Amino acid sequence: MKAALYLLVVLFSCSNSLAQKSGNNLEKVDGWYFRVTGGYPAAISFEPIVLFKDGTYFEIGEEALSEVDISQSKITDVNLWGKWTRNGTIFTLTNEENKSYQYDLDSGNWFVAFPYNPKIKLIGTYEKVSGGVYGNGLMALFSSKLTFLDDKHFTHAKNGGVTAYGSSAWKNDENSGVYHIKGNEISLSYNNGATIKLSFAIGAEGDNVIDTDMLFIGGKAYVIE
Asked: What are phi and psi of 170, to 5 degrees?
């Protein structure tokens, strides 16, 4: 009996600790943004950034913010962290190497990234493409397509391949399931039993008006077909 009570106390303490971490992370956020970097045309990239109220920023990746161990991440992923300041529409980000970069809300290189709300209807296929030409006849191409069929169901297709010296190898994979989005997090529950929780945000255009043609899923930009 005592062992059972002890186990219940331990489980309650662990779940309470996780809930506190989740809430604390989200409460510390000042805002979500994304920056545009690179050159014309293929090198352009869109990178989501989370600004915290304490003046630090985080280049959010695959993991949902509520599940990030911030203290540990600042040690193991130090290159993803830095400091930020704001003067009007100008945001200055200083990375771990003490190099500063300025971004302007009015210049087209810095935009607000929006959370999801139930009034938004996501229907259609969003695609992320990566890869390139690496020299010596080596080329690689990887595609991830996430299709929102309605307000609950999705399909996820992954295609990738490598071509080198006249030969090639390709792999295709497709799964389906149900999804749930809340704020800046998306949960994908696949029909094979796997469930993953990822960071999520919606892009913007022009004068920082919400634009559902671009989504940030797991820290990567997905563009509607």
From this structure: -130, 150
Cis peptide before 41 (omega within 30 of 0): yes
- Give the Cα separation of 143 and 148 in Å (integer): 16
* Residue range 27-112 in CATH 2.40.128: yes
The residues, ordered by sequence, that sit 6+ positions from 47 with a Cβ below 8 Å of its Cβ are: 34, 35, 37, 59, 219
The answer, yes or no, to whether residue 4 has pLDDT greater than 50, is no
Cα–Cα distance for residue pair 208/114, rounded to 1 Å? 10
pTM (predicted TM-score): 0.84
41-50, 53-62, 85-94, 106-115: which has the minimum mean pLDDT?
41-50
pLDDT in tens, 132-172: 777 676 788 889 999 999 999 999 999 988 887 667 777 78
Dihedrals phi, psi of 61, to nearest 5 degrees: -115, -140
Q: How far is CA 156 from CA 10, 125, 174, 188, in A?
A: 38, 9, 6, 10
d(CA 174, CA 14): 35
Choose among 118, 119, 113, 120: nearest CA to 30.
113
**How many other C-beta atoms can be found within 10 angstroms of the C-beta atom of residue 76?**
9
In terms of phi and psi (left: phi > 0; alpha: psi -120 to 50; beta: otherwise), the region of 120 is beta
